[in-house]
Design goal:
By secondary structure, this protein is α/β, with parallel strands linked by helices. The chain folds into 2 domains: 220 residues, Spore Coat Polysaccharide Biosynthesis Protein SpsA, Chain A, CATH 3.90.550; 185 residues, UDP N-Acetylglucosamine Acyltransferase, domain 1, CATH 2.160.10.10. It has 8 helices and 38 strands. The chain has a 15-stranded parallel sheet that branches. Strand 4, helix 2 and strand 5 form a beta-alpha-beta unit. The structure holds uridine-diphosphate-N-acetylglucosamine and calcium ion (CA). The site of uridine-diphosphate-N-acetylglucosamine has 32 residues, from strand 1, helix 3 and strand 10.
Length: 451
């Protein structure tokens, strides 16, 4: 039997933020979501989340989490030991193992937790914790061992003397307890320390039977207490994501300048040029070339698409399209095969058929363009009358001249030609030329009188 408790009640004073620390974002997910995700394959009988500081916000963010957490309120927040004391009631009848995770240690791998639990059950210790040797252990609790290699005690950085601070073996804040034994010692914790709090770490010496497991990959146990550690973690996570995709056949010209989300998937032979960023849920097909300088969010991009210096959000782009430079695809921009979207063109909630081109300076919104439509420079679909949005439909093979305004609702048939500078307010049938502009006047021999 396994219960997991995530400690997420602390304020995170050192973050200097209005947001509770565990809700700080890291590569598109909150810290506490990442901690919960690291429990991956463990399948606990109970999942408990200890909340306190801004508890409503933390609960609201996690109430629909697939692990179905039970929220346990810790009020006031009197330290990590006090947090775990709050489990005495909800786990009164529980007699299995309790895995305690700090809500601010977000990069753990589920394999590491699996191994910790396996090791703990094999040795039958009262507690087994994750430790690491750090070059710079400042801020972490130091772990002191007995001669037989088991753990004697943990002393917090601020409670250590000079000599003790030289110990580089630190407590990662991840523990596997035998709950029936832990619950005997929890009431014995005292606040006799620099912070005047109840420390979970003091249970280790009270239990007197503690093992530890040393983590090799230090990125896994990085705890986040301030913005600089948050940035370091973001860096490590990005590094993991990029290495993963490089191993899958994606090239990065300048990897460190690009950021990915976990829900972005790439095909093979994709080239990511510098300063390109992927957020949310994306699928990028084989042979695409994205960047430099692009932001792609929640998009489906098929194969062999090139995107340069552009922003794409919620768009679906078929194979062979060419986007940018300086294009803006907004939600529900649906581009057929081989569509060309050029500079300073914005497309929103519009469908463009195969081979259509919008090359320069246009706004296409709430429109449906057939195939091989050529939209002239500066063409605008005037979709909004101040109250509602209206649709523009343009048939296959039609062309609009430069600086046309199509006042929606409007329907242009197939193979229509729109003269440059036209403002059209009425439908145009198949094959017609539509002109909607003032006739040019010519006054011969005209000269302005001298002033
Ligand atoms: C803790 C450990 C330290 C370890 C480090 C690893 C203790 C006393 N110290 O220190 O040995 O090296 O983690 O990262 O445990 N929390 C509550 N309620 C509280 C206080 C904290 O739920 O009353 C939660 C916080 O939200 C956080 C976690 O517990 O997620 C750790 O608290 P934090 O104050 O960051 O502990 P550290 O000083 O980092
Ligand atoms: Ca911490």
């Amino acid at each position: 039997m396994l219960a997991i408790a995530v400690l997420a009640a602390g304020k995170g004073t050192r973050m200097k933020s209005d947001l509770p620390k565990v809700l700080q974002p890291l590569a598109g997910a909150t810290l506490v979501e990442r901690v919960m995700a690291s429990t991956g394959t463990l399948k606990p009988e109970r999942m408990l989340l200890i909340v306190g500081h801004q508890a409503e916000k933390v609960e609201a963010a996690l109430k629909d989490h697939p692990s179905g957490p039970q929220f346990v309120l810790q009020q006031p927040q009197n330290g990590t030991g006090h947090a775990v004391q709050q489990l005495l009631e909800p786990l009164a009848d529980f007699d299995g193992d309790l895995l305690v995770l700090n809500g601010d240690v977000p990069l753990l791998r589920s394999e590491t937790l699996d191994a910790l639990l396996g090791n703990h059950r094999k040795t039958g210790a009262a507690v087994t914790l994750l430790t690491a040797h750090l070059e710079n252990p400042t801020g972490y609790g130091r772990v002191f061992l007995k001669a037989d290699g088991s753990v004697r005690e943990i002393i917090e950085h601020r409670d250590c003397n000079e000599e003790q601070r030289k110990n580089s073996l630190i407590n990662a804040g991840i523990y596997c307890f035998h709950w029936p034994r832990l619950k005997q010692v929890l009431p014995k914790l005292s606040a006799d320390n620099d912070q005047g709090e109840l420390y979970l770490t003091d249970t280790v010496s009270l239990l007197g039977d503690a093992g530890h497991q040393v983590v090799q990959d230090l990125s896994e146990i990085t705890g986040i207490n301030n913005r600089s550690q948050l940035a370091q973690c973001e860096g490590m996570l990005q590094e993991r994501l990029r290495s993963h995709w490089m191993a899958e056949g994606v090239s990065f010209i300048d990897p460190a300048s690009c950021t990915l989300s976990e829900d972005t998937r790439f095909g093979r032979d994709v080239i990511i040029e510098p300063q390109s960023h992927f957020r949310g849920n994306n699928t990028i097909g084989d042979g695409c070339k994205i960047g430099p300088g692009s932001l792609v969010q929640d998009c489906v991009i098929e194969s062999d698409v090139h995107v340069v210096l552009s922003m794409l959000n919620g768009a679906k782009v078929s194979s062979g399209c060419r986007i940018g430079p300086y294009a803006h695809l907004r939600p529900q921009a649906l581009l057929g095969k081989g569509v060309r979207i050029g500079n300073f063109v914005e497309v929103k909630k519009s469908q463009l058929g195969e081979g259509s081109k919008v090359n320069h300076l246009s706004y296409i919104g709430d429109a449906e363009l057939g195939s091989r439509v050529n939209v002239g420079a500066g063409t605008i679909t005037a979709n909004y009358d101040g109250i509602s949005k209206h649709r523009t439909v343009i048939g296959d093979g039609s062309k609009t001249g430069a600086n046309s305004v199509l006042v929606a609702p409007i329907n242009l048939g197939r193979n229509v030609t729109v003269g440059a500078g036209s403002t059209l307010t009425k439908d145009v049938p198949d094959g017609a030329l539509a002109l909607g502009r003032a006739r040019q006047l010519l006054k011969q021999g005209w000269s302005t009188p001298p002033s």
